[in-house]
Amino acid sequence: MSSALDRLKALTSKITSFEGSRKENLAKLKALYIGLKIDEKVSTFEDLFEYKAMNVTGLSLQAQDLGAIKENRYVQIICISYDKEAKGQKSKNSSLGYFGRSDSIDKALKNDVVKFILCWRFEKSFMTLEHYNDMISTVDAAS
Fold this sequence. Notes:
alpha+beta, globular, 3 strands, 49% helix, 3-stranded antiparallel β-sheet
């Protein structure tokens, strides 16, 4: 009995921790959205999540060299959207922000750009989990 209770306590603690992290992440993301002037390209914060993916040029997002500068490149936040109605090429890349040459970018700005992408991906992951959870619930209810 106590091991089941211990597992339940551990799971509850982990879920609470993730929800707290998610709220903190959203607050950081909103601040970066304004600070990096992404709001000039995407007028509503919630519309950021209409994009299917987001990446950055000129900087590394790999865990082993996170934020490392790729020399002789330009730092730019790129978002990918899909047009289901389009014939041929269905994906579209758009720039959300241009920040100059990678080898001359301010360190604080570089860190903010990297943080923005990671925070966006973190929240997008939660949204994906919620989507699949809802779908499973729909199938369960139909059974």
